[in-house]
Design a protein that fits this description.
Blueprint (H helix, E strand, L loop, with lengths): L2 E8 L12 E8 L4 E5 L6 H8 L7 E6 L9 H8 L2 E4 L11 H6 L8 H9 L4 H10 L15 H14 L4 E5 L7 H18 L2 E5 L3 H7 L2 E6 L2 E7 L4 H8 L4 H5 L21
Parallel strand pairs: 3-7, 3-8, 5-6, 6-7
Antiparallel strand pairs: 1-2, 1-4, 8-9
Helix pairs in contact: 5-6, 6-7
Bound molecules: adenosine-5'-diphosphate (ADP) and magnesium ion (MG).
Length: about 280
């Protein structure tokens, strides 16, 4: 899928009206099948950018086009159909705690399914081999029937990524996919994502906290700061000086390990009642 932004502004969904928009007039063109990493300090607007591209929030001003169509001008049914071609992986995957991993992974297909099909798939996982294969690519095949709340944060994050492999989407938007992973796992996971996106011809836009991983794996890097694009360059041309300027006053984010991943809100465990 082809992506175009022209002078697009957007406000974080939780931001109050009248505050400065998180994105302040972005111009960005991404070709179909391209792979792009967005880096920048916390608060730069990376998550807001992904939400804008995922049609989770409308642009305040300017233009968003996906495959040449302005999504927010489409009739509702067509906007829904378009959303079925988008896959957004939030930083903390919304995994229901007592769900089995297999069901959670197959949920990657839900946005593209009809209501009946998707309900059925929640009760009867329909394509277990596909879920197995996707998990195997993230080294999680042995967790197929494990409960999601018995996984570590890093394993949950990889389950969230395995969902992308099941999704028929042609635009993958992946928010900080590696924040709970150690460096070796992070490299493997990003390689798996890039390879899978390439195999399917999907466009991939990922925000990344690990600048070294972004530079080593992605061909194109967009530096975002204060809601504006600081640079948009092939990875080889980014260089230390631009990185230093991008992270000025946030130097610790360039060198520090990934921030603690907030634990997903797990539903309280049921209280065990004893009947006499
Ligand atoms: N929960 C929130 N409530 C209000 N405004 C927010 C909230 N989260 C983020 N923002 C605003 O949106 C801006 C961009 O945030 P975000 O897109 O989350 O950046 P990033 O993902 O780069 O850390 C922030 O600088 C802040 O101004
Ligand atoms: Mg973010």
């Amino acid at each position: 899928m082809k992506v175009a932004l022209q002078a697009a502004t957007a406000r974080h969904p939780a931001a109050r009206a009248g505050t400065t928009p998180a994105l302040r007039g972005l111009d960005l063109q991404v070709a179909a099948g391209e792979q792009l990493a967005v880096i920048g300090p916390s608060g730069a607007g990376k998550t807001t950018l992904l939400q804008l591209l995922a049609c989770a929030l409308p642009p305040g001003a300017g233009v968003l086009e996906l495959d040449g169509q302005a999504p927010w001008q489409l009739p509702r049914a067509e906007l829904q159909r378009l959303r079925g071609r988008l896959f957004l992986a939030p930083q903390v995957p919304p995994l229901p705690p007592r769900q089995r991993v297999v069901t959670a992974v197959l949920a990657g297909r839900l946005p593209a399914m009809g209501t009946w099909q998707s309900l059925r798939s929640l009760f009867y996982p329909v394509d277990i081999p596909a879920a197995f294969e996707a998990l195997d690519r993230f080294d999680l095949a042995d967790k197929l029937f494990e409960r999601v709340d018995r996984l570590s944060g890093g394993e949950r994050q990889r389950v969230g990524l395995a969902r992308a492999l099941l999704s028929p989407a042609s635009l993958w938007l992946i928010d900080e996919p590696l924040s709970a992973l150690d460096p070796t796992r992070a490299s493997q996971a990003v390689d798996t994502l890039l390879t899978a996106a390439r195999e399917r011809g999907a466009t991939l836009v990922a925000t990344l906290h690990q600048v070294d991983v972004a530079l080593a794996h992605f061909p194109r890097i967009v530096g975002l700061r204060d809601g504006a694009i600081a640079f948009d360059l092939p990875a080889a041309q980014v260089g230390r000086e631009r990185l230093a300027a991008l992270y000025a006053q946030h130097e610790h984010e360039l060198t520090a390990p990934a921030p603690e991943l907030p634990e997903p809100a797990l539903a309280p465990q049921p209280v065990v009642m004893h009947c006499r």
